[in-house]
Amino acid sequence: MSALVYALGAVGLAVVGVLAVAATRPDEFRVERRARLAAPPEVVWPLIGELRAFNRWNPYERKDPMLKGAYSGPERGVGSRYDWASKEVGTGSLEITGQQPGRAVQMKLDFIQPFEAHNQAEFALQPLPDGATEVRWTMHGPANFMSKLMGLFINMDAMVGRDFEAGLQHLRELAEAPR
């Protein structure tokens, strides 16, 4: 046999191996970051529990100054919705699906482009004894085969986590600003 046949066979085996490894990865993903803010929950909550205020520090909103966004539904609370379209961050929507005022907010996050994904996001506030607040930002959802395959080459936790960290830093700046 020629070297070309061996090379093609090796490439084929490698591809099958990568696909097999991808198939064994978890069916769900989870990204979480936390930050301590030197502000009480009553100062932090309005910046998280209302989408217009959330977008003041949302790291994805800041990535594209040309982003087109539209709010719908109630101004705040369950049913508040934000749709966006952007060349930099894609197309999708964010909708508040649950709230525990002053403590937590749950959101449905739907991406349409550049790839379709349907995830859940949550912000949880934990008051600390010194008057500060710990904010936990979590996103989780199903991992389809393509995202499992991409996960072999791209560390999604690190990539999305960097955005969460930048967002929490911007939130810190707003929450800790002198009043």
Automatic annotation (TrEMBL):
Any one Pfam family match given in the protein's UniProt record, by short name: Polyketide_cyc2
Lineage top rank: taxon: Bacteria
Protein's recorded name: SRPBCC family protein
Organism in which the protein naturally occurs: Pelomonas baiyunensis
Lineage of the organism: Bacteria, Pseudomonadati, Pseudomonadota, Betaproteobacteria, Burkholderiales
